[in-house]
């Protein structure tokens, strides 16, 4: 395992980040057009974390995600078309329209799953790491969670147990500064949450979450450590969401200029600029165009797909053995 | 067949299942070195090692959530929650995680885990260590809820629960751990979702769970002396419910009494009572009688606690009212 991504790895991260960004923008438009249901939590601006942190994982590695999981899904290798179909409640979605955008799972890709209960993915990944250990597999579990989730009691319980038992789990804290609308400084007694790692006896690493290469490097090292049996790592990736908390967000809680300041640090142009010297503008533009087309096709297809019928599903009937 | 205590029967089930299937492992507070505060896991850590029998920190919320995900990823965990009173701490993992995934992920995962806990009053353990929160867990679709009343069922149902691909909440009773009974050796697997008629009767059906089964049997003795023959049905499984056994018994006796140690308001007895009226209304000659714990915190001092808990006397009274 390399700690630094190859140029090919970086190009693939770039492609996935463009896919995610275009998905988010399209979802925003569809929401305005009244074609989505419920709240949708966009992750524009945070793509480098979700994509960078999952880039070196195999299908046999597990991740747990959040209500804001689109970059995690695409990073973990899920098919954008089936993700979009799930978000649009179609029969062809990953969960046949039963999960919606917050709780998507693809067990075959080790993505089980998104979670709309803040903090709940943290013990889930810890439990997956128990399974990995007990069955002797060469794999890791990772939970991606927010700075809001870091304040839950279950986060403390999980980190203590994971470090105590030296479980192969990576705690990837996506610090986008806000809970729902409340700034982290009003939720946390410390500014950098990575310092909490010390209290659990594990390394705490603070990184620039808008730098996909830095995210990749830190996670690759944590994966190697976990696989050596040395236990968990807490990685805090500082980032920002450009759009609202969800499609229901009225805004007004960020200081003037903050969004613009972070837009100037957009992770996508940043990786693009870094790649330009290696592979040239033309190829990058082609990759962008392909990514956009893949997403546009995914939406066109998903919008034309049938909605599910309400029918029984044998695997989902726990009481079926009794009349 | 050996005569075993209920706790020993549970221990035997755990031991045999761990031997049979290396994916089975145990976690919980004080279950390892000490063997569990009720000694159900005695000697298992010595036998199966510290990886498969894990002493845990006091972290019920995380442990339950970890159990759920460990079950989805290739193992069969059995979690011990020391007292049923702590079930409220586990409710997120049960209601928002374990019970939904099989359905909302369209069958992509199975959740073969067991959450063992013990509840019930009568031991002077006070308001935070004596509750029967059966209705809490039975309320949630996607969970199975099992409550053995005898050592044989303790073994047979626990083995079945461990092999079940769905989450099973396994409710033991603190006053039953020392009860002795014949327990079949080796492969004795009971069927989840089947009730047992423990005593035949023609006049009134008593549907009981867990320790209340024994109180109901005592009540039946007293009633028999008065010429009332009560049929005692041990439900064994709270969910799924053995509807055909319930209906068959009510059709025979035309009177029903439901007994559960939980509180009556919004309780498990209310569900049973409604179920009987939904499915056997025409067979009933009188309203269904409900017996449960009085709707109040469970007090400590013995006369106070005994006044609150249901017992044979109250069950017999309910039967007399039903047949009057
Ligand atoms: C247990 C729980 N409490 C509250 C909520 C409502 N809620 C949803 S997201 C959110 C903020 C989460 O903040 P963070 O973890 O930082 O994630 P972000 O939205 O910033 O990505 C809240 C309060 C919830 N879903 N679950």
TrEMBL record, chain A:
<dbReference type="GO" id="GO:0006086">
    <property type="term" value="P:pyruvate decarboxylation to acetyl-CoA"/>
</dbReference>
<dbReference type="Pfam" id="PF00676">
    <property type="entry name" value="E1_dh"/>
</dbReference>
<dbReference type="InterPro" id="IPR029061">
    <property type="entry name" value="THDP-binding"/>
</dbReference>
<dbReference type="GO" id="GO:0004739">
    <property type="term" value="F:pyruvate dehydrogenase (acetyl-transferring) activity"/>
</dbReference>
<keyword id="KW-0560">Oxidoreductase</keyword>
<dbReference type="InterPro" id="IPR001017">
    <property type="entry name" value="DH_E1"/>
</dbReference>
<feature type="domain" description="Dehydrogenase E1 component">
    <location>
        <begin position="15"/>
        <end position="308"/>
    </location>
</feature>
<keyword id="KW-0786">Thiamine pyrophosphate</keyword>
<dbReference type="InterPro" id="IPR050642">
    <property type="entry name" value="PDH_E1_Alpha_Subunit"/>
</dbReference>
<comment type="function">
    <text>The pyruvate dehydrogenase complex catalyzes the overall conversion of pyruvate to acetyl-CoA and CO(2). It contains multiple copies of three enzymatic components: pyruvate dehydrogenase (E1), dihydrolipoamide acetyltransferase (E2) and lipoamide dehydrogenase (E3).</text>
</comment>
<protein>
    <submittedName>
        <fullName>Thiamine pyrophosphate-dependent dehydrogenase E1 component subunit alpha</fullName>
    </submittedName>
</protein>
From TrEMBL, chain B:
<feature type="domain" description="Transketolase-like pyrimidine-binding">
    <location>
        <begin position="4"/>
        <end position="179"/>
    </location>
</feature>
<dbReference type="Pfam" id="PF02780">
    <property type="entry name" value="Transketolase_C"/>
</dbReference>
<dbReference type="InterPro" id="IPR033248">
    <property type="entry name" value="Transketolase_C"/>
</dbReference>
<protein>
    <submittedName>
        <fullName>Alpha-ketoacid dehydrogenase subunit beta</fullName>
    </submittedName>
</protein>
<dbReference type="InterPro" id="IPR009014">
    <property type="entry name" value="Transketo_C/PFOR_II"/>
</dbReference>
<dbReference type="GO" id="GO:0016491">
    <property type="term" value="F:oxidoreductase activity"/>
</dbReference>
<keyword id="KW-0560">Oxidoreductase</keyword>
<keyword id="KW-0786">Thiamine pyrophosphate</keyword>
<dbReference type="InterPro" id="IPR005475">
    <property type="entry name" value="Transketolase-like_Pyr-bd"/>
</dbReference>
<dbReference type="InterPro" id="IPR029061">
    <property type="entry name" value="THDP-binding"/>
</dbReference>
<dbReference type="Pfam" id="PF02779">
    <property type="entry name" value="Transket_pyr"/>
</dbReference>
């Amino acid at each position: 395992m390399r700690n630094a991504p190859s140029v090919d790895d970086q190009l693939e991260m770039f492609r996935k980040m463009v896919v995610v960004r275009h998905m988010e923008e399209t979802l925003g438009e569809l929401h305005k057009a009244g074609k989505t249901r419920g709240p949708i939590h966009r992750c524009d601006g945070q793509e480098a974390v979700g994509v960078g942190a999952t880039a070196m994982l195999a299908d046999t590695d597990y991740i747990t995600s959040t209500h804001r999981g689109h970059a995690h899904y695409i990073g973990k290798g899920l098919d954008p078309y089936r993700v979009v179909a799930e978000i649009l409640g179609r029969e062809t979605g990953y969960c046949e329209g039963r999960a919606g955008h917050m709780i998507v799972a693809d067990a075959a890709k080790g993505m089980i799953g998104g979670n709309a209960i803040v903090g709940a993915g943290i013990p889930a990944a810890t439990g997956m790491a128990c399974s990995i250990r007990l069955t002797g597999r060469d794999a890791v579990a990772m939970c991606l969670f927010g700075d809001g989730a870091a304040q839950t009691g279950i986060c403390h319980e999980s980190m203590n147990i994971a470090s105590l038992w030296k479980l192969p789990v990576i705690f990837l804290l996506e610090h986008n500064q806000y809970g729902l609308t409340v700034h982290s400084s009003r939720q946390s007694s410390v500014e950098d949450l990575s310092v909490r790692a010390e209290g659990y006896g594990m390394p705490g690493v603070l990184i620039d979450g808008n730098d996909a290469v830095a995210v990749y490097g830190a996670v690759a090292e944590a994966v190697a450590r976990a696989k050596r049996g040395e236990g968990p790592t807490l990685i805090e990736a500082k980032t920002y969401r450009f759009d609202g908390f969800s499609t229901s967000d009225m805004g007004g809680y960020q200081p003037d200029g903050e969004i613009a300041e972070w837009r100037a640090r957009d992770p996508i142009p940043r990786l693009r600029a870094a790649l330009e010297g290696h592979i040239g503008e033309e190829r990058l533009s082609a990759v962008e165009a392909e990514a956009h087309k893949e997403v546009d096709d995914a939406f066109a297809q998903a919008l034309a797909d049938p909605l599910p019928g309400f029918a029984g599903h044998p695997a989902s009937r726990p009481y079926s053995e009794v009349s | 067949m050996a005569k075993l205590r209920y706790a020993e029967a549970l221990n035997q089930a755990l031991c045999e299942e761990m031997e049979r299937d290396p994916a089975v492992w145990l976690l919980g507070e004080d279950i390892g070195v000490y063997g569990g505060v009720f000694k159900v896991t005695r000697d298992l850590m010595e036998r199966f090692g510290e990886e498969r029998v894990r002493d845990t920190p006091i972290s019920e919320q995380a442990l339950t959530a970890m159990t759920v995900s460990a079950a989805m990823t290739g193992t069969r965990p059995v979690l011990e929650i020391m007292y049923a009173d702590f079930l409220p701490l586990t409710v997120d993992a049960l209601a928002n995680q374990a019970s939904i995934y099989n359905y909302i992920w369209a069958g992509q995962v199975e959740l073969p885990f067991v959450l063992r806990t013990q509840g019930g009053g009568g031991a002077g353990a006070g308001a935070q260590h004596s509750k029967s929160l059966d209705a809490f867990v039975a309320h949630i679709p996607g969970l199975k809820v099992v409550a053995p009343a005898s050592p044989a069922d303790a073994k047979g149902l626990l083995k079945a629960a461990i092999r079940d691909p769905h989450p099973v909440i396994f409710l033991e009773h603190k006053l039953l751990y020392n009860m002795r009974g014949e327990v079949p050796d080796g492969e004795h697997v009971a069927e989840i979702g089947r009730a047992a008629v423990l005593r035949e009767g023609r006049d009134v059906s008593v549907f009981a769970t867990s320790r209340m089964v024994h109180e109901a049997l005592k009540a039946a003795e007293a009633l028999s002396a008065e010429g009332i023959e009560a049929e005692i049905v041990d439900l064994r499984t709270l969910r799924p419910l053995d509807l055909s056994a319930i209906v068959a018994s009510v059709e025979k006796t035309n009177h029903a009494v439901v007994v559960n140690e939980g509180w009556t308001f919004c309780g498990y007895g209310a569900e049973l009572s409604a179920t009987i009226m939904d499915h056997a209304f025409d067979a009933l000659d009188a309203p269904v009688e409900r017996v449960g714990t009085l709707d109040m915190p469970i007090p400590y001092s013995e006369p106070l606690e005994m006044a609150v808990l249901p017992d044979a006397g109250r069950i017999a009274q309910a039967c007399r009212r039903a047949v009057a």
